[in-house]
Amino acid sequence: MTIMMDYMLKEINEQPTYLQNLVEQNKEKIFNVVNRMMTKKDINKIILTGCGDSLCASLTTEAAFNKAGFTTFVFPPMELSRYRYKFNNLMDERTLLIPISVSGKTPRVVEAINAARSKNCTIISITNNPESPVAKNSDEYIYAKSSQIESIQSSSYDGEVSSKYVGYEHDVPQTKSYTAVQMALLLLAQSF
Description:
Blueprint lengths: L1 H39 L4 E6 L2 H15 L3 E5 L1 H6 L12 E7 L5 H12 L3 E6 L5 H4 L3 E4 L5 H5 L21 H17 L1
Parallel strand pairs: 1-2, 1-3, 3-4, 4-5
């Protein structure tokens, strides 16, 4: 229990530095990506998707995209990729999909990207793994940098709980990754 609390406290204490670095290193890049994308495409709708904490971060930032003037939806990736994309013309060439996966390997998120590709959507992902399928299958990606790249690219973990998940550094809630994803989403929304 003490080790878990030490890692948890470490995660919490690292957040201000990670968030400051994320803003300093990505704000201009995000603005340029959005500007370039908006010059090429007439985006009128945004869809946010992710699993677990990434889905929660999407839900907490949905209003920021609505405030920027876009019809915005948040869907779990399986619902999006298996059902929603087929109906009501939800996705088309004027849709921006923002998939989120800390590991960049979440199968359901990759599936949602493939569904969006089949509808000619623009895709800007958020991940901690620039070498991942999520990053590679997106038009652009935002590198959140809230986890050590070595731990993200590995699939072997020592804890009973985290051994089931790729992208987690320790068996504690990933507060640093969660807040980094929220900040990246807010920077995106602010760039429109």
